[in-house]
User: Fold this.
Amino acid sequence: MKLASFLSIVLMTGFLLVAVMRLHPVGQATGDPDVFSDRGNVIIDVQNVATMDDYFLRNGQMETGSNNIVTSVVFDYRAFDTLGEAAVLFIVVTSITMLLYGLIKPGETPDDVIIAADGFPLKISRIVTIGALLLFPVIAAFGAYIIIHGHLSPGGGFQGGAILGTGTALLLASSYMTKKLYKTYKTFAFFESFGLTLFIGLGFAGVGGSFLYNFLANGDPLLFGRVIEMGPNGGFLNSGGILPLLSLAVGIEVFSGISIILIMLNKALYLNKSQKSEG
Amino acid sequence: MLKSLETVRGSTRRVIGNKEGQVNNMSLSTIIIILCVIGLITAVIALLQRDLLASVIGFAVFGLVQTALFYLLDAPDVAIAEASIGAALTVCIFVIAIRMTRRREE
Assistant:
């Protein structure tokens, strides 16, 4: 058994090293290194395309109106895959809620005093609470920025939602959110479903082309359809078609899902501690 | 057009066919190797430590090192995800689990 695990580790390392040897140069297409040369006004250029990532590098910006090629792949070319990821997170949150549902009851207002492991009540230090109060707006603003600018700068729905989720963790750890936990949970549960429904609804809205077709790109500037120039530029918020909307939907869903998980675990922790102190 | 790319991405990033860029490439690979060694050390600490809280903190440092590596390898999207999930949320959930069970491994 030990030999088998050792052999599998060696094999896996070998595969990874071979994969690293065969990588592209960083940030460069395979054929002509100058991606932006001599295109004229052609939106989709398939002349010099050899592989799939060549196509994304050469045409992603013009076709989807998104400066961030990674977001254009995640939310446009591979949007169905992203729908699967969002659904996986939804299922995880659902199963955790199924396991721990009885813990949070309506109308219950738990104490904001944590019982320590040895049975004495533990008041949270003022340094922690005030520090959390000062840090939370910064984290919330950064997460919202990452979500909204997903099609212009690095980031997107998943990353921004996770950053907002760390804000929830901070509030729970400093016992700002322990009152009216049931109402908070219900709000997050609503927005969890709302985010996924928004994603699927946007997918069905473009069904004249295909499911999750980017029907808003390069159209009306009022509806995120601004046409952008090829090459490096500052970017505009109203470009990208349905990419910003999908990013927002995924951001809402991930933020609510992570918050629900953290609220449930936090509640279970409190109950566990108080039972230990009684027994 | 390559010139404009160079000004946008800043002088610390490499541009193919540029002597200065290759010098930067050398120092970049040195930083990457140093970060890999630190990551290896923290990963071994996280694996072998009997105190589970210390193990989790080693894991968090490993996530931080990985974040820096992803950023240096031109993958800022993955770096943000790793920083928020690997170094913050996973650690938070692990700490809750340790508080609900025991702190020391047997």
In short: The longest strand of chain A covers residues 114-115. Chain A has one domain: 41-278. The interface with chain B takes residues 25-28, 33-34, 36-37, 68, 70-71, 117, 146, 154-156, 158-159, 162-163, 165-166, 169, 173, 231-232, 258, 261-262, 265-266, 268-269, 272-273 of chain A (CB under 8 Å). Residues 41-278 of chain A form one domain.
